[in-house]
Amino acid sequence: MSQFWSAVVHGLNPYSPGEQPGFAQLIKLNTNENPYPPSPRVVAAIRAELGEDGARLARYPDPEGVRLKDAIVHYYERHDIAPRQVFVGNSSDEVLAHVFQALFRHAAPILLPDVTYSFYPVYCGLYDIAFETIPVDRDFAIRVEDYQGRANGGIIFPNPNAPTGRALPLIDIERVVRANPQSVVVIDEAYVDFGADTAIALVNRHPNLLVTQTFSKSRALAGLRVGFAIGHPDLIEGLERVKNCFNSYLLDHLALAGATAALEDVEWFEQNRRKIIASRESLTAQLVGLGFQVIPSQANFIFAHHPDHDAATLAQALRERHIIVRHFKLPRIEGHLRISIGTPAECAALVDALKHVFNP
Ligand SMILES: *Cc1c(COP(=O)(O)O)cnc(C)c1O
Question: What residues contact 103, with CB distance under 8 A and at least 6 apart?
Fold first, then answer.
């Protein structure tokens, strides 16, 4: 607290990110990072960009990120996207911040699920945006009919949803988009590559649909901070206007080079997601064997509840065994643990630790 804070800072309720421990022995299943290193082509591209003497770092990067946008357009060739339909930014969290600022500051409240990514209400606080939460059903599924016929200043939810991992089919996404032609519908696809269909397939039909994605999860680049949005050129222009009032060079040389190379290594990407999906299915089966109820996940994490064990106590017991998972002390979900999918060895260590906790 300080007399120098502005009034708005006193009122903020910041997001608290999952712990990043300094202690390397921990098995880290708490922030949905990819357990594998990124494509070797990413590393090579960053090294090449840096060069012998790092001279490039003396120069500002391309403020438009043209090469990266072209690589995104090329990667999504089948959906026929133009570069002016793409916005790139320093992480999808930052892209989302610009989305809230540029597209959600209207008179009516925005709509979001009650169980969802807890950063959205934080942006609402930062930008003074009213929001209304729509309860997910008893099985934690988003009911699309609840998003129809309600006046609103915008709609946002992840697909697959976080922290539940549940995905909606594109037909349902399209129903929400169609039912709300006066609002921007933002689909946050941070986890889409682990099993859901991308709504990028729909953007050319719907000028009110914006899709965001990140390189942090499926491309193993959480530390590089790259995200993007795809939608109608007018939506993208709104984001560019905000960005150019904030920081004209959102992405640095290394991030631009690394992210571009990541998109080009399709083989690494396909292999990586297949491994993670396989681990997810096997971990789910093992946890069910231990008595957990696990929500069917299309993401790189699972959301699990044990009827006989308190979730916070379990998280603590795992921590004592050097495994960290995420527990949210929030209504409706405080009985659940969100467990990121690790390597097969990490998943096995988790199952082992749980067996010891259950039968000491
Ligand atoms: C991880 C995550 C993000 C943020 O990704 P970054 O690009 O690392 O900022 C956005 N939305 C959801 C739902 C996420 O889980």
Answer: 154, 184, 186, 210, 235, 238, 239
